[in-house]
Amino acid sequence: MRDKKMGKIVGMTQSNYIPWKGYFDYINSVDEFYFYDDVQYTKQDWRNRNLIKTPAGTEWLTVPVGSSRDRLICEVEIRDSLWQRSHWDKILFYYKNAPYFKMYREFFEEIFLGSRWTNLSDMNQTIIKRISRELLGITTKFGDSRPFNLTGKKAERYIPLLKEVGCTTFLSGPSAKNYLTEEMMAKEGIKLEWMNYEGYPEYHQLYPPFEHRVTILDLIFNEGPDMKKYMLSFKEKVEK
Question: Where does the source fall among the domains of life (predicted)?
Fold first, then answer.
């Protein structure tokens, strides 16, 4: 998606629970990707939940983490482990007939049932890294914002991280457009670009109508080894 020979491209965002394909496209579009979990935890967001497809439409898989808002994402504890079996049982029930479910069953069964997760951020980051490395072959370097001891608000908070790691281009998600500008970044010697999530092709998906914004599990189980053909950054790399 971007020419990585032109300096260092960096991306950064909060960790999500088994995110959608666009999240992994974002990771694959940068040289270094930083999890930004030392910020306020937000309820009814993607941090602790995601969508799967069912015959009745989409359904949330939600990790129970309590209702407190007075905590950072990296501080969110998972005290109950019963949800792990529940989530896996639902995935098994709705995706067991997907073309490639058997191929990836052991991989995900180990994630859900092989460990007892106690911290939301640690779990999200581990799952994202494993899918990136082991299933998608992404070579992007992963990092975490916590060691940088960031302070301040909005862009002022993470610009020091970008400068310290030698970022020349910051690829940002579109949600930051309400507070982040090219002029602001240019003053720091950093070029700003925006991640574009438009133009995804549809793939074979159980339970129509087609829905793009579901967990990447849906793409993996339905397209298997061809999953990268339906993700923009991989497709563009092949065409170059």
Answer: Bacteria
What pairing do the DSSP bridges indicate for beta strands 141-144 and 32-35?
parallel
pLDDT beyond 90 at 54? yes
CA–CA separation, 88 vs 235, rounded Å? 30
Q: Torsion angle, CA of 112/206/138/171, rounded to 10 degrees? A: -110
Of 74, 173, 166, whose CA–CA distance to 119 is shortest? 74
Which pTM was predicted? 0.95
Is the distance from CB of 217 to CB of 52 less than 8 angstroms?
yes
Q: What is the dihedral of CA 149, 155, 159, 162, to 10 degrees?
A: 100
Tokens of 83: 């949800």
* Total number of domains constituting the chain: 1
pLDDT over 90 percentage in the chain? 89
4 to each of 32, 46, 169, 174, 188, how far by Cα in Å?
A: 11, 29, 10, 20, 20
The answer to whether residue 205 sits within a structural domain is yes
The answer to whether residue 51 sits within a structural domain is yes
Positive or negative, the CA dihedral 171, 177, 178, 180 is positive
Neighbouring-strand partners of residue 62: 49
Domain, as residue range, for 100? 9-239
Q: Which tens digit of pLDDT belongs to each residue from 185-218? A: 999 999 999 999 999 999 999 999 999 999 999 9
The 10s digit of each residue's pLDDT in 120-130 is 999 999 999 99
Specify if 19 maps to a domain.
Answer: yes
126 Cβ contact list (under 8 Å, min separation 6)? none
Domain-embedded: residue 100: yes
